[in-house]
Structures are given as structure tokens and as C-alpha cells.
Design goal:
By secondary structure, the protein is α/β, with parallel strands linked by helices. The chain has helices at 16-25, 38-43, 46-50, 68-81, 95-99, 110-121, 142-154, 185-194, 209-218, 226-230, 234-242, 251-267, 272-276, 289-300, 310-328, and strands spanning 5-7, 30-37, 59-64, 85-90, 128-133, 159-163, 199-203, 221-224. The chain folds into two domains: 5-241, TIM Barrel (Alpha-Beta Barrel), CATH 3.20.20.70; 251-328, Four Helix Bundle (Hemerythrin (Met), subunit A). It contains 15 helices and eight strands. Bound molecules: flavin mononucleotide (FMN).
């Protein structure tokens, strides 16, 4: 199943370089772009904002907007560009996003949202999916959420990613909104129970494969954000334990492929730090983690970092690999 495990859309994190890096680690997870506003997708530099490499697939474009004409245009663009899914953001609580009328504030507008979904579904042949919260402000109510989902279902959406905590639209920053409202997984399980025909993906605070396995008994899929960004090699556990993959890459082989990618990208004008900043957590919890982080921050994270320095990084990767092998022997 395509969305059994997915990596969450994360602004400033899941750009095309990060997705390429994650794909070196896992072939089976579904990947999502950062949220792209409809106006940026339509009027902006499309090559810069929306292009991706085929290696990243399966890949969903996440869009933010509430103008049905614009959303249907972006759905068509996504399909034409080869994305596998278009996902509407109904969960972001930031003030700026609210001012533009997208994200979690749209949970207050079920009819508008279902109109938007209807026009997206009618303009493309890829799946239209929704990522939302379980509630907002004082509203954390099963019937409200179920009705919201029902309206979207009637408009043609069959896949829902539910971040299992409500959004506080006033009084909390976006960062606080990722931690303070309490997780309520039961609400998500109950939505799945009530709607067995829908694909329900659970998200929020999931950090290891034991938790993933529990959720998969009660939902169709699990989406993980921060735990993967901070520790991307967690995806190897996911590959082994959830997908049964026998042959998984070593950190050293990932670093090697990444340097090849970096060399190509630098020739095309990409800055070294734009790629390497996503790899800080590659040795998370391992021998050599500090060395890796220090080398990256001293040599490869500055704006004008030089590709030549990346050659040395392979020595660190090889030494780390040996050190970790010794620990496990
Ligand atoms: C840095 C960052 C950026 C995020 N950007 C987006 C975004 O663009 N679109 C979105 O739907 N959610 C966004 N989120 C929320 C995540 O997709 C996810 O729902 C949230 O982090 C909870 O999952 P987790 O506990 O596994 O991290 C972001 C979260 C973080 C930490």
C-alpha cells in the first residue's frame, strides 16, 4: 500500500534535496513536498518551486489555498508534472497561513473545503487527499470531525491524514502547536472504525517501530515528521521491520551516493549547504555523531561552502562506520 508509511510535509525541511536524501535510505515510504501556496505554484518560478527528480517518487505535492479555481489549476499542474498525489493542507495553524485563508482555519469552513476538493477532483486524475487536525480551539468533537470528513468524502476525497492533536488558532505559536495540544489517537482510531471504507493515516508524535506497528492495527497508514528529520536513518528500521526489506544501505553508502548527487547539483548551481543541512542527523545516536555534525557545521553549512571539502566527509563516514562496527561486534 502506497501510504503505509509516509514522511510528513515540513516547511524548510522536506525540499527536493532532503527528499532525494531520504529516498537513498528508504524506497518504500511515500514522500510529501513542503506546503506550496496556490499562487506561488501558479505564478512563481515553477521550475524552482515544483520540480523534482524521478528518484523521489512516489511523491505528493502539498498545497495551501482556499480558492477553488486556483486549487483546481494546481491539481492539474501537479498531475502534468508527474506528482502521484495532491494533498490539501487543512492543519497548519500559523497566523500568516490563517491570514491567507488556508491551513487549519479551514476546519471552520466544511462547505468551502468540500467545494475546493470537488473542483480539484474534477480537474485531475491523481488522488486528492487532505491533511488535517482532529479539531481546533475549543472544538475537539468526534461528530464535528466526522461530518467534516464526510463532506470531503462526498466531494471525492478518500484519504485523510489526521494529525492527532487539535490546532490552537489563537495564543500558540506554530511550534507550540506541535507539542502543547494533547495527542488524542483514540479520535483517529474512532474515525477509522466509523469509516472503514476511507484510508485513514495517523500522524503526530510517533517515534519508533513498535508504535508504528500498534497504529497500523487500527489505521491504514502512519505519517512521521520530526522523528525522521532528526534521525533519518530511522527509515532503515522502518524498511526492515515494517516493509521486511532484507538489504538496507549503510550510512557510509548513503554518504557516498549523496556526495555523487552533491557534485552533480553543485555543477548546476546548487549551494553545498542547501543539500548538506538535511544530513546533520545521519549519525544520530551513533559513534562519530559529534564529529559528523561538527565537520558539517565548520565546513559545509556556511553559505559559501566549497564542494572540495565534501571529499573529506567520506573519510569521516568510513571512520564512523568502522567505529560503529566495533561497538556492535
Ligand atoms: C518544521 C516543520 C514544518 C512543518 N511544515 C508543515 C507543512 O508544510 N505542511 C503540513 O501539513 N504540516 C507541516 N508540519 C507538521 C507536520 O507535517 C506534522 O503534522 C507534525 O510535525 C506532527 O508529526 P510529527 O510529530 O511526526 O513530527 C510541519 C512540522 C514541522 C516540525
Amino acid at each position: 500500500m502506497l501510504r503505509k508509511i509516509s514522511v510528513a510535509p515540513m516547511m524548510d525541511c522536506t525540499d527536493r534535496h532532503d527528499r532525494f536524501f531520504l529516498r537513498l535510505i528508504s524506497k518504500n515510504v511515500m514522500l510529501y513536498t513542503e506546503m506550496v501556496a496556490t499562487k506561488a505554484a501558479i505564478h512563481g518560478d515553477r521550475d524552482k518551486i515544483l520540480s523534482f527528480s524521478l528518484e523521489e517518487k512516489p511523491l505528493a505535492l502539498q498545497v495551501g489555498g482556499s480558492d477553488k479555481k486556483e486549487l483546481s489549476e494546481v491539481a492539474k499542474i501537479a498531475e502534468d508534472m508527474g506528482y502521484d498525489e495532491i494533498n490539501i493542507n487543512l492543519g497548519c495553524p500559523s497566523k500568516k497561513v490563517q491570514q491567507n485563508m488556508f491551513g487549519a482555519c479551514l476546519m471552520k469552513e466544511p462547505d468551502l473545503v468540500s467545494d475546493c476538493i470537488d473542483s480539484m477532483v474534477n480537474s485531475c486524475n491523481i488522488p486528492v487527499t487532505a491533511k488535517t487536525r482532529i479539531g481546533f480551539d475549543d472544538t475537539e468533537d468526534f461528530d464535528y470531525l466526522n461530518n467534516f470528513i464526510f463532506k470531503m468524502k462526498m466531494a471525492g476525497c478518500n484519504t485523510f491524514i489526521l494529525h492527532a492533536r487539535k490546532a490552537m488558532l489563537k495564543g500558540l505559536s506554530p511550534k507550540q502547536n506541535l507539542n502543547i495540544p494533547k495527542l488524542n489517537y483514540e479520535m483517529v482510531y474512532n474515525i477509522k472504525k466509523k469509516n472503514p471504507d476511507l484510508e485513514i493515516i495517523i500522524n503526530g508524535g510517533i517515534t519508533n517501530t513498535e508504535e508504528i506497528k500498534k497504529h497500523l492495527k487500527l489505521c491504514d497508514g502512519v505519517m512521521i515528521g520530526r522523528a525522521i528529520y532528526q534521525n533519518p536513518y530511522f527509515l532503515v528500521d522502518v524498511e526492515k521491520e515494517i516493509f521486511g526489506t532484507k538489504k538496507t544501505p549503510t550510512r557510509e553508502s548513503i554518504a557516498e551516493k549523496l556526495i555523487e548527487y552533491l557534485e552533480k547539483e553543485v555543477k548546476l548551481g546548487t549551494k553545498v549547504n542547501h543539500v548538506m543541512r538535511h544530513t546533520v542527523g545521519l549519525y544520530h545516536g551513533q559513534a562519530g555523531s559529534k564529529k559528523w555534525k561538527r565537520y558539517l557545521s565548520d565546513n559545509m553549512m556556511a553559505r559559501d561552502s566549497d564542494f572540495q571539502k565534501s571529499k573529506h566527509i567520506m573519510t569521516i563516514a568510513q571512520n564512523n562506520e568502522k567505529a560503529n562496527q566495533k561497538i556492535h561486534d
